[in-house]
Amino acid sequence: MYLLMIDWWFILEKFLLVGFVVTFSLLIAMYTTYAERKIAAFLQDRRGPNRAGPFGILQPLADGGKLFFKEEIIPLASSKFLFVLGPSLAMLTAMLTSAVIPWSTPLQIGGRDVPLQIADLNIGILYVFGVVSLGVYGIMIGGWASNNKFSLLAAVRGASQMISYELSMGLALIALLMLTGSLQMSVIVQNQIVHGWHVIYQPLGFLIFFICALAECNRTPFDLPEAENELNFGYHQEYSSMKLGLYLFAEYVNMFISGTVMATLFFGGYDIPFVNEASWGLSPNLLAFIGFVVLLAKAFFFLFVFIWIRWTIPRFRYDQLMNLGWKKLIPLALVNMVATAIVMLLRNR
Amino acid sequence: MNITQILFWFLSALTVFSALMVVVSKNPVYSVLWLIFTFFCISGHYIMLNAQFLFIVNIIVYAGAIMVLFLFVIMLMNLNQSSEPKKHRWLRMAGVVAGGCLLLVLVAALKNIDIKKQVAETNTGDIGLIGNLGKVLFNQYVVPFEISSILFLSAMVGTVVIGKKE
Q1: How far apart are CA A168 and CA A204, in angstroms?
Q2: What is the DSSP letter of B79?
């Protein structure tokens, strides 16, 4: 089916994949809020939500419905366009990262190989890095358009925190790139299937990346932008209804996506450890499904750790946060990078 | 017109429009946001030339880092229309003349370039891919590359020194 020199099956297949990934991420994010409350309740010896449906399983729907029906207030003195743009950008940048994640091995439909990756870019990791660096805008624009000094302060705090932690994140990634010699996400996963997971070679790099991911998602102990006792409610103080919902939701989407990114970069992506699943002789479609489930299991593990940390560790003070980022993580990441380079040079000789 | 040309003209119109909006906007915050949008349009052109590395570096460095700092400063200074001082008329005239002179220089510089021979390799050029670019940078241009990195390092040291001064 070629029309206007465009392969329309290709467009359709990508369109369906994008739709699926977005819907799926939203669904996961919805139930992460439920998981967050249940795990928090467990850690604090409570029951958690248990009214809506069996085990409170319909609670996220009730929360979402409530947010949709709340009164929507847009401050008069604020810039209306930017006020709406803020939460939209937060959601957009949270979703964009999912474009380069290889979700599983290719499906086979009607003799066509359908790769379960929206775009296998030559520069996959840098794309992730670029989108992460754009995540600041949602917070900054929202905070500024609120026309409230607390929101603005929280937005500035959030932006400077994100910029600071991006640096060590990038440095931790460079060591990883030396191992694979490629920026392409699919090549990185293949490399891990052949040589073993990167977390074995790069434990320190993974630790740095994990800490930075916590900071980029604005999760405790790095949730300075929403420190209630200092800034009332943080950058989304003036927001109500679903705009507030989008901000809160973007955080959970971010958590899910960064969980999958970490699983892909350091924990073998859709690879099942210790076995060679290609030799089982299963149909490629079934294998792709199993790979997808394995990737999800790894991502869910990271989601659990994120939530676990939130309900265990108290928040940093602002100067402690900056000290950790600039004086501990960046030197550590630099040492990790140089050490990796030296070891690789010696082993090649 | 094939799809590449349609995309090219669309992106170009968008780039020029957003660049104009940077100058025309009254509120400095809007100017910065339009400038960010302009960078995205230019990045789109890089994609069309298959220069993926330039595309992403343009976004990481300009849209992701430098413009955030711009936005930072402008938001904290709280500039808006009422606080902006009225400019003198002859100052405006001087601005127009200076801008016109710059245009004249640019036109004079570009006038004699033979554009016809330099065809853009849309979708097929591979010099912008990261492997090829790295090989050229670290073989052919390694000395200029190292010198510019020393320049960056000295700028960083300078910032720390200024920041440390109480």
Answers
A1: 12
A2: -
The Cα–Cα gap between A280 and A254 comes to 35
Closest CA to A268 of A169, A152, A172, A190: A190
User: Would you give per-residue pLDDT tens digits along chain B (166 residues)?
Assistant: 677 788 889 999 999 999 999 988 888 888 888 999 999 999 998 888 888 888 888 898 888 888 888 888 888 776 655 556 677 788 889 989 999 999 999 988 888 777 666 666 666 667 777 888 888 888 889 999 999 999 999 998 998 888 887 6
If interface means Cβ-Cβ distance under 8 Å, which residues of chain A face chain B?
4-6, 79, 82, 121-123, 126-127, 129-130, 133-134, 136-137, 140-141, 144, 152, 155-156, 159-160, 163, 166, 183
Beta pairing partners, A286: none
Between chain A and chain B, how many beta carbons pairs sit less than 8 Å apart? 65
> Which residue in A123, A129, A136 is closest to B68 by CB distance?
A136
Q: Quick check: A288 pLDDT over 90?
A: no
| Contact present, A102 and A270 (Cβ < 8 Å) | yes
Q: Could you report the predicted ipTM of this complex, rounded to two decimals? A: 0.82
The angle that helices B28-48 and B3-24 make with each other, rounded to 10 degrees, is 160
**Which of A129, A155, A156 is nearest residue B60 as measured by Cβ atoms?**
A129
* Nearest to B52, CA basis, from B144, B148, B134, B143: B134
The DSSP-derived string for A66-130 is HHHHSPP---TTS-HHHHHHHHHHHHHHHHHGGGG---SSPEEETTEEE-S-S---TTHHHHHHH
Q: Please report, for residues A346, B91, B133, B154, the alpha-carbon distance to residue B141 in angstroms, rounded to integers and kept in the order given.
A: 26, 44, 11, 20
Among all residues of chain B, which has the CA nearest to that of A79? B30
Cα A287 from Cα A294, distance rounded (Å): 10
CA-based diameter of chain A, in Å? Answer: 68
- With contact defined as beta carbons under 8 Å apart, do B39 and B70 qualify? no
Going by the DSSP 8-state scheme, the letter that residue B131 receives in this structure is H
Helix (H) or strand (E) holding A342: helix A330-348
